[in-house]
Specification:
The structure holds 2 protein chains of 2 kinds. By secondary structure, chain A is an all-alpha fold. In chain A, about 65% of the residues lie in helices and about 0% in strands. Classes of the chains: A mainly alpha, B mainly alpha.
Chain lengths: ~130, ~500
């Protein structure tokens, strides 16, 4: 891991794709300022996405104890014949968690795809 | 022994035989591939997620939740919610990077990320501590189940499960464990789902007796007063953040082909866990409607309480089978994780490879087994809750900061792990010694996560900033490895 950097090698020969892949990945491999910008953009996107999902989780599920603490009369509601807390914590929370997870997976994969496009190792029309 | 014990005994034998048969089948498959670990890296998300679910749903989920909810009401629903939401947090913050790190265990990750043997040693210690804390209630639950099913003394069940696990792990059962665990998820789900459906029909036939009776506190999702609010948030924090730090959870991520598959697997796990946790509250509500006694064997006793004759016997057999699957799968996973660490980091100098692993397995199971027999009074879900608090106060900051912050240093990691470990450890010791919350000090120690987790994070960050010059040189390269998709050809160190 702390090996000396490998010597830079010039890639010659006809390109196998319409774009030449090695160019931009080289910046990351050699940890140039530009490479740091590329990696930093991916990291920031993914971290912001994580923060958004966790924020949503805290706002919806995480706020419930405080809500019931401040408004104990919520406990008297029973929509659908179940006490509100049971309906929320026993049933509805699970599909909500799966939905949040699904949204995260889609967005995270899109961010990674954008990163690959940026580095020109993927073409727009590739899956 | 009366004939009451027959369904339970049959269930126990059937589960054990099925487990062995599937294990043997899996062993054969894995032997036909040149390298088991390569084969297991191609485990598809569906199968892998079932295996994760099978390993994760323990005695606390199968027996503990229903009993806790019956006793204390909706505030205990936070346990299953947190155990599921923990997987969402894990998915969002660590799933793909952890797989891409190539680490097989938490100590492996720590050493690869920070390049420090001392951090590794500390992590190994914590894996063993958390593993033991988590194994203890599995053995207790096994004792309770066997007592309820066939009227055996409590230590018998613990000993049976302990022995099966040691033999299984020691004889190299690890190779086939994916199939066994996947089977056990579906067994556990069936074993709760079918009886729940039948008992709900019986309940409707009895004119739907109301489970509400006796105080509205039962439907309140937190305890009374500020202590109740604190305790609830502490449980939320411990379970949401602790899942990612459980030793037997991390190992499974290595079996995914790549980071993308790790995410998809986790998503399926979320759905599987959510489906399962719909069921225990049903047992709690029915138990309340029918006046069941409030202890950890509620799930096992409810079928006979509500249904006479053959129907009750069959359903009792089914839930007993599910309970045994829960003990076997979770304790096997934990025993593998703990004995791996013991063999690798403690016993390696004294014994050779396989002997070290076998001695490790014996120690890994023996210590919590002895504790379970000697201290049988601790509530099953409570002890598991403490294991989560310790994991959330130690491995959660290490993983989150290690993955997302280049600036973490070995000294910062050690300081944070010690602070979080000692803080939450004090809580554990206090609860094991005297679990009755009377004053605020008891409340704070009984559920330490709400203060020990932020404290551990803060310590890790501050000490890392103070020792800034010690940031590992390969940190940048490691970040590339953790976060870039595998399709991009990069130097990952």
């Amino acid at each position: 891991m702390s090996d000396p950097r490998p010597a830079r090698v010039r890639v010659t020969g006809p390109p196998l794709r319409r774009h030449t892949p090695a160019a931009r990945t080289g910046d990351i491999d050699e940890q140039t300022a530009l490479g740091d910008v590329y990696l930093g953009s991916l990291l920031r996107e993914q971290l912001a996405l994580a923060a958004r999902i966790l924020g949503l989780l805290a706002l919806t599920v995480g706020s419930l104890p405080a809500l019931f603490h401040v408004f104990p009369e919520l406990n008297d509601l029973d929509p659908l014949g179940l006490p509100l807390a049971w309906l929320l914590l026993g049933v509805l929370v699970y599909p909500w968690l799966v939905l949040l997870g699904l949204r995260f997976v889609r967005r995270a994969e899109r961010n990674e795809r954008d990163f690959a496009l940026l580095l020109e190792v993927l073409d727009e029309d590739e899956p | 022994m009366s004939t009451d014990g027959v369904p339970g005994l049959v269930a126990l034998v059937v589960v054990s035989l099925a487990t062995l048969a599937i294990g043997t089948y899996g062993l054969r498959i894995s032997r036909t591939t040149s390298d088991f670990y390569v084969a297991s890296r191609s485990v598809r998300p569906g199968l892998n997620a079932s295996a994760i679910g099978g390993e994760y749903l323990s005695a606390a989920s199968f027996l503990g939740v229903a009993a806790l909810v019956l006793t204390a009401g909706a505030q205990m629903l936070w346990y299953p919610v947190g155990w599921t939401a923990g997987y969402l947090v894990l998915l969002v913050l660590v799933a793909a990077p952890l797989r891409r790190s190539g680490a097989y265990t938490l100590p492996d990750f720590a050493e690869a990320r920070l390049g420090s043997r001392r951090v590794r040693a500390l992590c190994s210690l914590l894996v063993v501590a958390i593993g033991w804390l988590y194994l203890l209630p599995q053995f207790q639950g096994a004792g309770l189940t066997l007592t309820a099913a066939v009227d055996a003394p409590e230590w018998v069940g613990a000993l049976v499960v302990g022995a099966v696990v040691v033999v299984n792990v020691g004889s190299g059962g690890m190779r086939s464990i994916t199939f066994v665990q996947a089977f056990q998820y579906w067994l556990k789900l069936t074993a709760l789902l079918i009886p729940a459906a039948v008992l709900l029909a019986v309940w409707a036939g009895d004119g739907s007796p109301d489970p509400h009776g006796g105080g509205s506190g039962w439907s309140m999702p937190l305890g009374t007063g500020n202590e109740g609010l604190y305790t609830t948030y502490s449980i939320v924090l411990a379970t949401f953040l602790g899942t990612m730090g459980l030793p037997h959870v991390v190992v499974r991520f290595y079996t995914n082909p790549d980071g993308r598959a790790a995410r998809r697997t986790t998503l399926v796990v979320l759905a599987l866990l959510g489906g399962f946790y719909l069921l225990p509250p049903v047992y709690a509500a029915l138990g309340r409607a029918y006046g069941a006694s409030a202890d950890d064997t509620l799930v096992l006793e409810l079928p006979r309480l509500m249904l006479d004759g053959l129907g009750g016997d069959l359903l009792t057999g089914l839930v007993t089978a599910g309970a045994f699957a829960a003990f076997l799968s979770t304790s096997s996973g934990l025993a593998i994780a703990v004995s791996g660490v013991l063999a690798q980091d403690v016993l390696r100098d004294r014994y050779s490879g396989i002997t070290a692993f076998r001695v490790g397995a014996t120690v890994a199971v023996g210590v919590p087994l002895a504790a379970a027999v000697l201290a049988p009074d601790l509530s099953v879900a409570r002890a598991v809750g403490l294991a989560f608090a310790v994991a959330a106060s130690t491995f959660c900051p290490l993983l989150v900061l290690g993955i997302w912050w280049r600036g973490l240093t070995p000294a910062g990691a050690i300081a944070g792990l010690m602070t979080g470990g000692l803080g939450s450890g004090a809580g554990v010791a206090w609860t094991l010694y005297d679990g009755s919350p009377a004053s605020w000090a008891d409340v704070l120690l009984g559920q330490p996560a709400a203060w020990s987790v932020p404290l551990a994070f803060a310590t890790m960050v501050v000490v890392s900033l103070l020792t800034r010059e010690a940031v590992p040189r390969h940190a940048g390269r490691f970040m590339v490895r953790l976060h870039t998709p595998e399709v991009v050809p990069l130097d990952r160190g």
